[in-house]
């Protein structure tokens, strides 16, 4: 399990009430139980049959971290495996999707870590991405004001 941060959701503004948005990505080999952990956390349930992983990723979860409202904007499940957990010294948890052991703790800790990472990231690529995100927004608002100037609002004919 690793924390970090589909069009259109990636580009959507923070939903009402959320002060921060993070993404949670479940990494791991096939059939290790990624989807079931997500199912247990989001739905507080476990069904032996497979619930569509895609359907699970459509849920949006809200959390509170240090008093701040956090929107978990995306929960992805991927079979790609990385050396991510070791590289970032992420904690190890014994979990069970079947009986719920440690599932809420695992996800809540991941959300907290994601918020902390987002607020203190010294990662060069993250900084570049943040610059690009705000650049794009500035550009859109400039384009909007340009359009307003070139197409002045039509006034209804006076009677
Ligand atoms: N008994 C038990 N079975 C589990 C548990 N977690 C998952 N399983 C079973 O393990 C199988 C695989 O679980 P998934 O959650 O689909 O695993 P996944 O890692 O998402 O698999 P992929 O979609 O192939 O990547 C399913 O048959 C689950 O019912 C658990 O905590 N206990």
UniProtKB/TrEMBL annotation:
Family under the similarity heading: Belongs to the small GTPase superfamily. Rab family.
Name the record gives this protein: RAB, member of RAS onco family-like 2A
Highest taxon of source: Eukaryota
Gene3D superfamilies in the record: P-loop containing nucleotide triphosphate hydrolases (3.40.50.300)
GO terms for MF: GTP binding
Keywords, ordered alphabetically: GTP-binding, Nucleotide-binding
